[in-house]
Amino acid sequence: MSTFYNNDSKILPGFSIELGKEWRKSERSYFSFGIEYLHRGARVENKYVYGEEWLTKLNADWQVAYLTFPIKYNYMFAGQKKIYFTAALAPCLAIIDKSKISIIFRDDPGDFPKENADYSPAYDKFIPAIENSTIDVRIGFGKKFDRFSIEWQTRIDLYGSVDTLSGILGVDAKYITSCFMLNYYY
């Protein structure tokens, strides 16, 4: 489940799948590296987009898919039955944009103050996908069993922003994602 933490938005569900390798550093600490497909989004409503020649009011579901490369550290708590803390840094490369925009109205901007707009179009993007790429920090807790573990994580965009891959609206929003993970060891 994701939303924006620096813009007013609503929660949208998503999913991810990851394949990785874990190395045991000591009796209580583990490192892992993986590759993950992550799909997440957030809904915005009644947002104004200001352009020199037009003013648009819209609703949008910003949905972006990423290829991520998490570097993760797990630490088992002393005296606990395989309960652990997990932290990760994950570069996220945007690969698919499934955003949907619903225009409420579009009109001449007239006397509408540009500073009151929620978004302003960005033009002349050389590599527009960079606008969607981010670096996430992941923190959470888990419980390890014989062949699997369950985790609850919070992911926060540290760097980068969300925008359409075409770079049209100049959205500067960052995700906060809460996720339940099931890990299987083979």
Quick summary:
Helix content is 0%, strand content 61%. By secondary structure, it is an all-beta fold.
Report on this model:
The structure is a single chain. By secondary structure, the protein is an all-beta fold. It has no helices and 11 strands. Strands 1, 2, 3, 4, 5, 6, 7, 8, 9, 10 and 11 form an 11-stranded antiparallel beta sheet that branches. A hairpin with a 3-residue loop joins strand 9 and strand 10. Residues 125-129 have low confidence and may be disordered.
Q: What's the total number of strands?
A: 11
Poorly predicted runs of 5 or more residues = 125-129
- In angstroms, what is the radius of gyration? 20 Å
Distance between the termini: 28 Å
Profile the largest sheet.
11 strands, antiparallel
N-to-C SSE string, H for helix and E for strand: EEEEEEEEEEE
Structural class: mainly beta
Helix run count? 0
Helix residue percentage? under 10%
Oligomer: single chain
Integer average pLDDT: 86
Form type: elongated
Share of β-strand residues: over 45%
How would the blueprint of this fold be written?
Layout: E1 2-4, E2 10-11, E3 15-24, E4 29-50, E5 55-68, E6 71-76, E7 83-97, E8 100-107, E9 134-144, E10 148-160, E11 175-184
Antiparallel strand pairs: 1-11, 2-4, 3-4, 4-5, 4-6, 5-7, 5-8, 6-7, 7-9, 9-10, 10-11
